[in-house]
Write a structure and sequence with these properties.
The chain is mostly helical. The longest helix has about 55 residues.
């Protein structure tokens, strides 16, 4: 009686599931890093907006201070303290 030998079944391929796991892990890590970067940029953008608001307020205050310091009424009031008077006739020269 002849017996036929059965071929052993092929072991399951482990390469494809391993590559799938590595690919999914890499994709998950990439997505996580992108979200982290996006969150950090959001915080940075918020800080920059706050700084812009602060600088705009500072600019407004400086413009107001400049307007107050250069006001004609203030300068006229300070002129006698520094012995300043309107120019005498002939002291001003008009350039062409």
């Amino acid at each position: 009686m002849s017996r036929e030998r059965k071929k052993p079944s092929k072991p399951p391929r482990k390469f494809i599931p391993a590559m799938l796991i590595v690919t999914i892990s890499a994709l998950g890590f990439t997505i996580l890093m992108m979200r982290l970067e996006s969150t950090e940029e959001g915080y940075r953008l918020s800080e920059l907006r706050s700084e812009i608001t602060r600088l705009q307020e500072q600019d407004r205050q400086l413009k107001l201070q400049t307007a107050q310091l250069t006001s004609h009424d203030r300068l006229r009031a300070l002129a006698p303290h520094y012995h300043l008077a309107p120019p005498a006739p002939g002291q001003t020269v008009m350039m062409p």
